[in-house]
Every structure is written in structure tokens, then in C-alpha cells.
Amino acid sequence: MMVKAVRVMLEPNNVQQTKMFQYAGAARFAYNWALAKEKDNYEKGGKFISDSELRKEFTRLRNSAEYAWLQNVSNNVTKQAIKDACIAYKNFFKSLQKHPRFKSKKKSTPKFYQDNIKIQFSDTHVKFEGFSSSRKANKQKLNWVRLAEHGRIPTDAKYMNPRISFDGLNWWISVCVEFPDCKKNLNNDGIGIDLGIKDLAICSDGNTYKNINKSQVVKKLEKCRRRLQRRVSRKYEKNKKGVSYCKTKNVIKNEKRLLKVNHRLTNIRKNYLNQTTSEIVNRKPRFICIEDLNVSGMMKNRHLSKAVQNQGFFEFRKQLEYKCNNNGIQLIVADRFYPSSKLCSCCGNIKKDLKLSDRIYKCECGNVINRDFQASLNLKAYGEKFAS
User: How many domains does the chain have?
Assistant: First the structure.
């Protein structure tokens, strides 16, 4: 059995959306409360407070008249938020992460946890705990939130760590589900992949995947985004009061439009990467060999940094890794200093004076070939040496 994370968009109605924001607010309050308790206790010289002790104290706080509003929120939401705060605080002292910060209402992502035992899935809906306590049939419908994708999450599986989050436009649910191992019959041949800016990926089997950022759809959206950014900037400058900026309704409206355009661009790029990697993996090669790109170094080049960022090389590699792992394909990462483009695929000669502007590789042995396609052939040959 293998564990996969599944993320699906939700389509709540207005009442359900209000309850979700209420749950996220309660989770943020419980997290900040637990973090403040731990911090205050540490400054006084006390030992680490366990999450079980804090949860017992929070239950007494929840039953008080001052915090009666917490009774409208499922107990499991706040309990898990306290546990998350304790884990984050403990990891800081283990040098696994930075010091946990208090969550801000304006800046932090609204999200909360649902109990993995009480959550239920159907083909079209997911049932949340505590949205409605009434036993009437029409009130019970409030607990069932529609899923944007039907049949994506199995209904008779074991669920782990269900989390609900808001990205500024839509609510999403992510849950880990156990799936059976799928072993596929693989081909004897391998594939070498050279990533670039002119084209996203050039494969050694002759397939080339174009750069989606050069398409008219993406260019129009980029232009629309630039215009909206300038419009928002002008609105802020126009409504400036002394040192501070005044956020008017027009600013909020334009910022929401800008957020939609940003999400649209991100979705187009991620979808294209998913389609590309899936198409490569579905050819069932014995191994896939890619190069270890120094993306952080490439980002320092101010002429290429934007193009490199938009290509999403890290996302491409991350998707290949988990898809190869799921399908039993060996993924080989070539050494960063392997001269895949400078090495002649025929005679093995290395052309040290090869420039980035030289798109055609010409060797003394008579080999004339596209440099990116030759790099993919060399990567395939590299993979043959290390393939098991």
C-alpha cells in the first residue's frame, strides 16, 4: 500500500463558507493561545507544557462564559491547532525550524483540521463535523459540502490528516489516502530529458514540449496583470493619507481581480507541467534521466531570472519524482557538472568554447545536431551507466 495526498476544491454555499471562516478563526485563536502559553512559561523558567495539559486547560476556557463562542466550533479543530503549536515549538528547540510566529488575521492563510474518523466522503460531497447539530434533514444538509471534482477521493478508504484551507478565492480540502501499489510493465528503453527556456523539455526519443509562457493566452494574461498592478498602485497613491495608505472599495475590488489573474496564470503553468510529466511517465520507460540544474544560480542572471522562474524547473522535477516512484520507474539525476550540452554524442569530444547563443552543435567529426537534443541523448547515455 502507498499513501497519496489528494487535494480537491470545495464549492460551499454562503452559510457553509461563513462556518469555514469561523472554524479557521477558532483554529488561529487556539494556536496563538497555546503559543503564548508556551512562550510565557519558557520566559518564567518553566518546563515544556505538553499539548494534553494545554488542551485540558483550553476545554475549561471553552466552557467559560467569556469564550462561549467557541462552543459553535468543533472541539477537534481547536485541539489539533494546539497540538500543531506544541509541535512547532518543540521543533524549534530541536533546530528543525525557525521560532514559530503568531498567526495574523490579515496575513496568515485561513485553515483548519477535521477529525479523520468523523469525516465522510461521497462521490460528490464531503461531510464536516459540527456545521449543524440539528437532526432535521434539511439542516443536516448543511454538513455536506460539494466537491468540485467528483469521484476523486475514494469513499471506503482510511483518511489521514484532513486539512481545509482558503487561498484567497476558493476553499480546498487535502487528505492523505491509502492506495494499492500499481506495478506496470516497463519498456527496456530509457529517456533523457534536457530542460531549457526556449522549450520546456527536449526528450531523447524525439518528443519536444514547448514553452507555455510563449503562448498567446499566457501573454495576454501577463499583460492584463501588469495593467491591474499599475491600476492598484495608482489607487493607493491617490488615496494616500500622509504616510499611511487608505484601502478603498475600488482598491479591494481591483486586488481581487488581480488575485484571480495570478491564480489563472499559476493554474495554466501547473496544469501544463502535470500534463507534460504524465505524458512522459505514461510512455513507461525503464528509467528517466534529468540534469541537476543550479536554479538558484540561474535566478541571479537578471536577463533570464523571470523566464527561469516561469518555467518551474523545481516543480517539474518534483512531479517527475513522485510519478516515477508511483509507477516503479527509476529516476536518475545527472551530476551538476556533467557536460551534457558540450559533449559530442558521436565521438565524445568536449567543445569547451560552446556559447549559450550557439543553438546548433557542430563537431570536428562532422556531427551537426541541435544542442538541446544532443544534451538529451547524452543524458540518456549517462542514465544507461547508472540504471539498475
Answer: 2
Please indicate, yes or no, whether residues 171 and 207 belong to a single structural domain of this protein. Answer: no
Q: Which residue shows C-alpha cell 462552543?
A: 71
The answer on 144 and 9 residing in a single domain is yes
Instruction: Determine the average pLDDT of the residues in 124-134.
Output: 88
Q: Locate the DSSP E strands across 296-371.
A: 330-334, 360-362, 368-370
Query: CB–CB of 375/338 below 8 Å?
Result: no
Query: Do 379 and 253 belong together in one domain?
Result: yes
Best mean pLDDT range from 103-107, 198-202, 220-224, 328-332:
220-224
Residue 123 makes CB contacts below 8 A (sequence gap 6+) with 150, 151, 155
Long-range CB contacts for residues 383-387, cutoff 8 Å, separation at least 24 = 383/190, 383/192, 383/287, 383/288, 383/289, 383/332, 383/334, 384/190, 386/332, 387/190, 387/286, 387/287, 387/330, 387/332
What b/e sequence results for 333-369 when a residue is b if at least 16 CB atoms lie within 10 Å of its CB, and e otherwise?
Answer: bbeeebebbbbbbeeeeebeeeeeeeeebebeeeeeb
pLDDT band of residue 354 (cuts 50, 70, 90) is confident
Hey, which residues does 203 pair with through a beta bridge? 193
Q: Which domain holds residue 278?
A: 191-386
Q: How confident is the model at residue 27 (pLDDT cuts 50, 70, 90)?
A: very high
Residue 372 pLDDT more than 70?
yes
What is the chain's mean pLDDT, rounded? 90
Contact 191, 204 (CB under 8 A): yes
pLDDT value of position 123? 92
Q: Is the pLDDT of residue 186 over 90?
A: no
C-alpha cell at 239: 488615496
- CA dist 127 and 162 (Å) reads 12
Between vectors from CA 221 to CA 239 and to CA 295, what angle results, nearest 5°? 100
**Helix, strand, coil shares, percent, the chain, to 5:** 45, 20, 35
| Boundary residue ending a domain (154, 179, 204) | 179
CA 22 to CA 69: how far, in whole Å? 10
Write the CB contacts of 216 (distance below 8 Å, at least 6 apart in sequence).
none
Maximal CA-CA distance, the chain: 87
The DSSP call for residue 350 is B
Over residues 150-171, mean pLDDT: 92
